[in-house]
Amino acid sequence: MSYSLNTYPWHNSTWDKFVTARAQNHLPHALLIAGSDGTGKLDFAKRIATALLCTSPVNNEACQKCKSCKTYQADANPDFMSIELLKDKQQIAVDQIRKLSDFISYTRSYNAYRVILLNPVERMNNNASNSLLKSLEEPASNTIIILVASNLSKILPTIKSRCQILTLPNPTKTQALSWMQQQQHSNTTNPEELLEMANGQPLTALTLSEDDVKSRVELAQDLLAICTYQQPVTDIAKKWEKYDQSAILNWQIVWSEKSIKNSILQKNKEKKKSEIATILEKLDKHIATQQHWQLYQQLITQKQYIHTSVNSLMFLENMLLLWLQASQ
To answer: Do 236 and 142 fall within a single domain?
Structure first.
């Protein structure tokens, strides 16, 4: 795990809660950091982890100079353990969580906390979740488990009940734009347009490349082709099979949600639009507002099949068929 202390202005109020709890010796044995993708949850979790591991914190932050901080930077801190998805795996397995149990039994090396960082917690399989629950039920002294999650509904209630939940807020549009304008980015697309494509998530917006923008425009065009019977679903599905299915689904969810909001707010039709917004406006004409509500719910439901063994081509066909059905 690379060393990172990225901080963001929309984290300030949540960070203050952590600092206050620590100052009052009210830190729980397990913290659950929750929030939307693209808003810096993992960076926030690392910030807490390094602050807890540091033996000489400065203004509640890791000093980055003590032996504990230096070994963390070298991915060699004996008091820190990171559990994440292994390469080419869709779920965190029980064997990974069992190593956590062994780690907790070790003697600490420095005069600070022992810290475990688990991300993303909602990607544990059932056996892994049950194994983690045992560790949460029998907390070790001076040990804090930090869980990171985007979807609290996919986490066992018994796990949530044994954690203190810190929910990171989404940044305001002003905060997000101001932060993006301060960053170095090679994409020539307007920051406001990138932010719109990323559904207001600045970290996601900053990762968008020119090719990403072109891909989203192309997918919007393909959806329009499906709804206007210019291209069959099977052909479009084969075309997109090689792309990240989770990203493709998320784009569609964002577009459907935006269409519903636009219909309610009756946004100014004269406002200058991006290429993708123009395509989506044409797409909206083929789908009634009430159908968009149903489409949105159906797309959300598709999320449960993303990290399963469902055939990718079948998954794409079923997902794209939802647009065709909504347009009829």
So the answer is: no
Residue whose entry in the numeric block shows the structure tokens 């690392």: 46
DSSP at 292? H
Q: How many CB atoms lie within 10 A of CB 86?
A: 12
> What's the CA gap between 29 and 113, in Å, rounded?
11
- Burial string for 254-277 (b: 16+ CB within 10 Å, else e) reads bbbebbbebeeeeeeeeeeebebb
Can you give the CATH number for the domain in which 125 is found?
A: 3.40.50.300
Per the structure, how many domains does the chain have?
A: 2
Q: What is the DSSP string of 117-172?
A: EEE-GGGB-HHHHHHHHHHHHSPPTTEEEEEEES-GGGS-HHHHTTSEEEEPPPPP
> What does the alpha-carbon distance between residue 189 and residue 176 come to, in Å, rounded to a whole number?
16
Q: CB of 53 within 8 A of CB of 69? A: yes
The whole-number mean pLDDT for each consecutive block of 10 residues of the chain, a chain of 328 residues, reads 70 95 94 93 96 94 93 94 90 94 84 90 94 91 94 93 95 91 76 84 88 92 95 95 89 89 66 80 88 92 78 92 91
**pLDDT recorded at residue 267:** 57
- Residues 33 and 146: their CA atoms lie apart, in Å, by 7
Domain, as residue range, for 228? 209-327
- 161, 65: one domain: yes
Of 145, 167, 189, which residue constitutes the final position of a domain?
A: 167
Distance, in Å, from the CA atom of 303 to the CA atom of 314, rounded to the nearest integer, reads 14
pLDDT, position 2: 41
**What is the pLDDT, as a whole number, of residue 3?**
47
What is the pLDDT at residue 266? Answer: 64
> Which pair of structure tokens corresponds to residue 122?
């909602």
Write the single-letter amino acid at 5. Answer: L
Whole-model pTM: value is 0.79
d(CA 314, CA 60): 51
Residue 1: per-residue pLDDT: 43
Q: Tell me which amino acid residue 131 is.
A: S
> Are 293 and 260 contacting, i.e. CB atoms less than 8 angstroms apart?
yes
Q: In terms of domains, do 50 and 154 share one?
A: yes
